[in-house]
Sequence to fold (678 residues):
Amino acid sequence: MKKPVQTLTTRKALIRRTILLFAVFALAGFVSYPKGADWVVDRVNQASGWKLQYVHFPLVLGLDLQGGTHLEYIADLSNVPEAEKRDSMNGVRDVIERRVNAMGVSEPLVQITKAGNDWRLSVELAGIRDIQQAIKMIGETPTLDFREENEDADKPLTEEERKQIDEKNAEQKKKAEDAYARVKNGASFEDIAKQESDDETSKAKGGDLGFLIGQGAYRGLLERLKPVAVGSVFEGVVDDGANYYVAKVEERKPAGQEIRASHILIQWAGSSGSSSTSTKEQAKARIEELKKTVTAENFDEMVQKFSQEPGANQSKGDLDWFAKGVMVPEFEETAFKLAKDQISDVLETQFGFHLIKKTDERPLDDIRVRVVIYKKTQPSDIRNTEPWKRTHLTGKQLQRAQLEFDQRTGASQVSLQFDDEGAKLFADLTKKNVGKPIAIFLDDQPISIPTVQQEITGGNAVINGSFTIAEAKLLAQRLQAGALPVPISIIAQQSVGPTLGSESVAASLRAGLIGFLFVAFFMLMFYRLPGLISVLALAFYAALLLALFKLIPVTMTLSGIAGFILSLGMAVDANVLIFERLKEEFREGKTTSHAIDEAFKRAWTSIRDGNATTLISCAVLYGFSSSIIKGFALTLAIGVVMSMFTAIVVTKTLLKLVAAPSLVEKMPWLFLKKKSDS
Fold:
């Protein structure tokens, strides 16, 4: 009587395990294909009156799929001691990352690799199209300098200084107007740009700025040029406050859509950039109350009364025009889904809680522009109006910066050591500024502003404060990067347009689908019902793997997709081994359940060893190759690990569930069993 109970218990365990697996599959499917989850959320909201939010995990695309630039640099560390090379490169990477972030690039990737004795820096800029600007900004060696307070910064300009600025700008405007008149009379735009433009970069190319995007230094100019036809010159001279332009539109190409929106921001203590003392719960309750009363008509008024964004009273929360890739993903996704004049539900980001009103939308074009630039004189050209004034002390005189600990308190601090020239300059600077702050700038950004306690002689100094060990180490790396002669030179450059990237995605998806269908056909033809189960396990594998890529997240590149597609074929390798072993077990006359258990048990060592060698290869590729190959290695490695789970757990569970002894006896051919094996 015990055997049937045991069989019944085992059957129930199989059913529970199958239900759990399908629940995981459904969840992975919703993450992989969010439209299905959105449909469920919509139906639940309609039926219950709830306001459940969509939960999306976007797939992060690399530059070869999104479009962008890949730059490879080699660093000259010939003057750096071997023990300090790694820290020096980390410092350089930190500076490059800050430079790239300043360009407004979303998801930049900056990596250090060592190939033999060479140290290399790989920079991937997804979505960046001004390649020359990227190369210029990245390729500069980090600059370090020490500055003192500028006591003249707040003094108003004298009448003479204002007159001087007006006269110089009137002269520049006259030059621009003359150039415009000559262009309209048939003179060569390129020749005038080469002769007269004040911008050396575009001057060498006949004034060609390439394709301009909506955000950046030329944003004001681009707005003025949007109505101008291709091949036409803007009527008159463009003044954006910094320059006078004579401008011509050379080419246009569609680049999606851009929208204009405004928002109400309510922050809590701990949200990014917040000075609020409210708790998160209080902030959420407050904005939910506002949601009840805000309308499209009174939105601007409500922004001025309640929004905690700096300057909201003047801006009325207006965010101006923006395209995709500018705002944080959750804000952008919500804003683009709204209809014109529609107000969103409460949205949480790192900055706080938002109510978003979409005010307008329009097609977005990238415009290739040719210009002649006449720079305007600014107050800072006549007198230094910056709060900090440069001194003669720079990174050239800094010999070493390193992490130390205060002997009395044990607190983290950064020690500085100057050469002889720097020691004298630093002594003079500290003597002059006792009781005052001096600022340490790296790439024109202040990284530390210590207050001078006394004159410091001897060429050694300490920067102390409320540093954690990590913060002090990072500061030392930044200082050392600015002080060390670590020039970098470009050795490889690759550019991919967004159109080519989208075509690559479409082609890869087609290849993956075709590969899946071929594998499914093969398994069904050769292994019948077990083959069908392996196809279901393969679908489970694909959904789970794609969900993992989104959740980790893994930056998907063409090589990464290649790894993913290759892993689809490799995922059924284990099933082939198991099913061939299953045939042998049946030939030995074993019962169905025993045959399945033995097939999986005996095939496991071959599966394990085969996948282990693949994982070793992936580890070598990931550790010693460029970022392009790393994407292939990473996706293949994750796929191999996941394939072992689906082959052993999913396939075995489903096979044992359907392989009832009575069914096997009636249709043995369906389970790879011959009648002679019975």
